[in-house]
DNA sequence: TTCTTAACCTGGAGGC
DNA sequence: TGCCTCCAGGTTAAGA
């Protein structure tokens, strides 16, 4: 399940490989995942276009083309975006294949088909509601303890649910939200608005710490995450609570518990988090 | 306005 | 071995 570190690692690799290359044509193997425009219009939009670079915003990837048009990807839970230099690899779950002039392909694959792709022509507004309403990047200067304190003010929802709200913080997902709360010593069911200034400072620092660790480890792979080369991350080996129910807490040694918060599986230490 | 819940979807795990 | 049920989870729309 790609979150900010995983999406950023994909972006970095593809941004090295794709600029200057030209899309010969696009095969749309599952039209349901192409949200805009219609398949024929999308194919016309990308065919023969030279790629300029890959950007990231939250969990969205934006592939800019030289003519000013943009392809937007969201990998959701099981999506991947992989550059295949040979262009010959066969992925059973490939949903869209961009064949490149001179060989090679950019393959959008997705097991559970929740991911989505959009294409916008030059000058056209990038009308993706989730993308337009994203909160600040947690590793940017805009994300500070003061921002966090202001954003949670008066909120009664659990802090875990708050952290997963992309309108408040862009890019956090279930894994890094659980890890951040553990590092900050905050119980995931705490009312968001009940956090003190000191806890906001601790939580903001924890969020940045776990995201940077995830980036340094090449991301977290549980089932389907693959980086832009088709390889796997290593951060799952360093997680403190996520996916560790029943295993000892790295701080106190007592068992990690798993509960449901806001409909999401949530892992925490009931002794270290308050 | 804020928060919660269901739905989308399919592979894999576990139970029988 | 095969079948069935449940779980996983990011986002959004609908409902409370």
From TrEMBL:
<keyword id="KW-0862">Zinc</keyword>
<keyword id="KW-0456">Lyase</keyword>
<protein>
    <recommendedName>
        <fullName>Formamidopyrimidine-DNA glycosylase</fullName>
        <ecNumber>3.2.2.23</ecNumber>
        <ecNumber>4.2.99.18</ecNumber>
    </recommendedName>
</protein>
<keyword id="KW-0479">Metal-binding</keyword>
<feature type="active site" description="Proton donor; for beta-elimination activity">
    <location>
        <position position="59"/>
    </location>
</feature>
<dbReference type="InterPro" id="IPR035937">
    <property type="entry name" value="FPG_N"/>
</dbReference>
<feature type="domain" description="Formamidopyrimidine-DNA glycosylase catalytic">
    <location>
        <begin position="2"/>
        <end position="115"/>
    </location>
</feature>
<keyword id="KW-0378">Hydrolase</keyword>
<comment type="similarity">
    <text>Belongs to the FPG family.</text>
</comment>
<dbReference type="GO" id="GO:0006284">
    <property type="term" value="P:base-excision repair"/>
</dbReference>
<dbReference type="InterPro" id="IPR000214">
    <property type="entry name" value="Znf_DNA_glyclase/AP_lyase"/>
</dbReference>
<keyword id="KW-0238">DNA-binding</keyword>
<feature type="active site" description="Schiff-base intermediate with DNA">
    <location>
        <position position="2"/>
    </location>
</feature>
<comment type="subunit">
    <text>Monomer.</text>
</comment>
<feature type="binding site">
    <location>
        <position position="155"/>
    </location>
    <ligand>
        <name>DNA</name>
    </ligand>
</feature>
<feature type="active site" description="Proton donor; for delta-elimination activity">
    <location>
        <position position="264"/>
    </location>
</feature>
<dbReference type="GO" id="GO:0034039">
    <property type="term" value="F:8-oxo-7,8-dihydroguanine DNA N-glycosylase activity"/>
</dbReference>
<dbReference type="InterPro" id="IPR012319">
    <property type="entry name" value="FPG_cat"/>
</dbReference>
<keyword id="KW-0511">Multifunctional enzyme</keyword>
<feature type="binding site">
    <location>
        <position position="112"/>
    </location>
    <ligand>
        <name>DNA</name>
    </ligand>
</feature>
<keyword id="KW-0326">Glycosidase</keyword>
<dbReference type="Pfam" id="PF06827">
    <property type="entry name" value="zf-FPG_IleRS"/>
</dbReference>
<dbReference type="InterPro" id="IPR020629">
    <property type="entry name" value="FPG_Glyclase"/>
</dbReference>
<keyword id="KW-0863">Zinc-finger</keyword>
<keyword id="KW-0227">DNA damage</keyword>
<dbReference type="InterPro" id="IPR010979">
    <property type="entry name" value="Ribosomal_uS13-like_H2TH"/>
</dbReference>
<dbReference type="GO" id="GO:0003684">
    <property type="term" value="F:damaged DNA binding"/>
</dbReference>
<dbReference type="GO" id="GO:0140078">
    <property type="term" value="F:class I DNA-(apurinic or apyrimidinic site) endonuclease activity"/>
</dbReference>
<dbReference type="Pfam" id="PF01149">
    <property type="entry name" value="Fapy_DNA_glyco"/>
</dbReference>
<dbReference type="InterPro" id="IPR015886">
    <property type="entry name" value="H2TH_FPG"/>
</dbReference>
<dbReference type="InterPro" id="IPR015887">
    <property type="entry name" value="DNA_glyclase_Znf_dom_DNA_BS"/>
</dbReference>
<feature type="active site" description="Proton donor">
    <location>
        <position position="3"/>
    </location>
</feature>
<dbReference type="GO" id="GO:0003690">
    <property type="term" value="F:double-stranded DNA binding"/>
</dbReference>
<dbReference type="Pfam" id="PF06831">
    <property type="entry name" value="H2TH"/>
</dbReference>
<feature type="domain" description="FPG-type">
    <location>
        <begin position="240"/>
        <end position="274"/>
    </location>
</feature>
<keyword id="KW-0234">DNA repair</keyword>
<dbReference type="InterPro" id="IPR010663">
    <property type="entry name" value="Znf_FPG/IleRS"/>
</dbReference>
<comment type="function">
    <text>Involved in base excision repair of DNA damaged by oxidation or by mutagenic agents. Acts as DNA glycosylase that recognizes and removes damaged bases. Has a preference for oxidized purines, such as 7,8-dihydro-8-oxoguanine (8-oxoG). Has AP (apurinic/apyrimidinic) lyase activity and introduces nicks in the DNA strand. Cleaves the DNA backbone by beta-delta elimination to generate a single-strand break at the site of the removed base with both 3'- and 5'-phosphates.</text>
</comment>
<dbReference type="GO" id="GO:0008270">
    <property type="term" value="F:zinc ion binding"/>
</dbReference>
């Amino acid at each position: 399940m790609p979150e900010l570190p995983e999406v950023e690692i994909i972006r970095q690799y593809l941004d090295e490989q794709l600029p200057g290359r030209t899309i010969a044509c696009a095969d749309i193997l599952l039209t349901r995942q192409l949200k805009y425009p219609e398949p024929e219009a999308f194919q016309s939009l990308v065919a023969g276009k030279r790629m300029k670079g890959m950007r990231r915003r939250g969990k969205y990837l934006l592939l800019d083309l030289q003519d000013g048009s943009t392809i937007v990807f969201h990998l959701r839970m099981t999506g991947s975006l992989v550059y295949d230099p040979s262009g010959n690899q066969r992925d059973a779950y490939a949903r869209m294949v961009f064949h490149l002039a001179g060989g090679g392909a950019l393959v959008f694959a997705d097991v559970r088909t929740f991911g989505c792709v959009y294409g916008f022509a030059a000058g056209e507004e990038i009308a993706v509601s989730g993308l337009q309403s994203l909160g600040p990047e947690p590793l940017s200067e805009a994300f500070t303890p003061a921002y966090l304190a202001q954003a949670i003010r008066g909120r009664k929802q659990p802090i875990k649910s708050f952290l997963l709200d992309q309108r408040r913080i862009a890019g956090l997902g279930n894994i890094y939200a659980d890890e951040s709360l553990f590092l900050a010593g905050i119980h995931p069911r705490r009312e968001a608005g009940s956090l003190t200034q000191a806890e906001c400072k601790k939580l903001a620092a924890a969020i940045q710490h776990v995201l940077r660790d995830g980036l340094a480890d090449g991301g977290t792979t549980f089932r389907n995450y693959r980086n832009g080369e088709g390889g796997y991350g290593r951060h799952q080996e360093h997680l403190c609570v996520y996916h560790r129910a029943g295993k000892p807490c790295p701080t106190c040694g007592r068992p990690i518990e798993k509960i449901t918060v806001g409909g999401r599986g949530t892992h925490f230490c009931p002794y270290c988090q308050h």
